[in-house]
From TrEMBL:
<dbReference type="InterPro" id="IPR036388">
    <property type="entry name" value="WH-like_DNA-bd_sf"/>
</dbReference>
<protein>
    <recommendedName>
        <fullName>Vacuolar protein sorting-associated protein</fullName>
    </recommendedName>
</protein>
<dbReference type="GO" id="GO:0043328">
    <property type="term" value="P:protein transport to vacuole involved in ubiquitin-dependent protein catabolic process via the multivesicular body sorting pathway"/>
</dbReference>
<dbReference type="InterPro" id="IPR016689">
    <property type="entry name" value="ESCRT-2_cplx_Snf8"/>
</dbReference>
<dbReference type="Pfam" id="PF04157">
    <property type="entry name" value="EAP30"/>
</dbReference>
<comment type="similarity">
    <text>Belongs to the SNF8 family.</text>
</comment>
<dbReference type="GO" id="GO:0000814">
    <property type="term" value="C:ESCRT II complex"/>
</dbReference>
<dbReference type="InterPro" id="IPR040608">
    <property type="entry name" value="Snf8/Vps36"/>
</dbReference>
<dbReference type="InterPro" id="IPR036390">
    <property type="entry name" value="WH_DNA-bd_sf"/>
</dbReference>
């Protein structure tokens, strides 16, 4: 007949399990620290790469798309903010902001013909025509990123549009008021700084629209 383990045996087994647990936690911590170190190294190398190739990133759409893919792999989003290192180095945040405004303008101009739905290829074609001085510098990937940035923007002020697009106050107000009249924007005057916010609730992810319909 097999004897049951005594108190000493149970204590030894518990101690062994505790040791295994501690070893496992230490191994996991070492792996996590190594991954963090590698990620920091990758980000540093990415910054050096951006410094070296910033002209190509700004001017070459294919190169710019590959750069975005590199950033995504290390958890960096150059479009997350219009301030800070990436904005100062590359200025691509303002580039996509300008594209977004032009895309909205094109959609408004063609709405009578297409009901507000436009093919991505056609949109890019019209966008390149509008940017005649730099036709080859806009890709479909750029259009999609600009639209995504519009989703994140939410609202703008007159001063912000003037600064980013170098527009006059009159032109800026006319454009925003047109969006307001077309039902594509709402105004919010309830802020202490007295600046009117133009909100764009119509700009939302397709997934949310599908969920609402279902």
């Amino acid at each position: 007949m097999r004897r049951k383990p005594g108190i000493g045996g149970l204590q030894n087994a518990a101690a062994a399990r505790n040791q295994f647990r501690l070893v496992g936690e230490n191994v996991a911590k070492v792996k996590t620290d190594m991954m963090k170190g590698q990620l920091a190294t990758f980000r540093s190398q990415l910054e050096e790469f951006a410094h070296k190739h910033k002209h190509d990133i700004r001017k070459n759409p294919a190169f710019r798309s590959q750069f975005h893919e590199m950033c995504a792999k290390v958890g960096v989003d150059p479009l997350a903010s219009n301030k800070g290192f990436w904005a100062e180095l590359l200025g691509i945040g303002d580039f996509y902001y300008e594209l977004g405004v032009q895309i909205v303008d094109i959609c408004l101009a063609t709405r009578a013909h297409n009901g507000g739905l436009i093919n991505l290829q056609e949109l890019c074609h019209l966008l390149r025509q509008r940017r005649r001085s730099d036709r080859g510098a806009v890709s479909e990937d750029d259009c999609l990123r600009a639209i995504s940035k519009l989703k994140a923007q939410g609202f703008v002020t007159v001063e912000e549009v003037e600064r980013r697009l170098s527009w006059t106050p009159g032109r800026t107000i006319d454009a925003l008021e047109t969006l307001l009249k077309e039902g594509l924007a709402m105004i919010d005057d309830g802020h202490r700084d007295g600046k009117r916010r133009y909100w764009f609730p119509c700009v939302s992810p397709i997934s949310s629209l599908v969920a609402a319909d279902s």
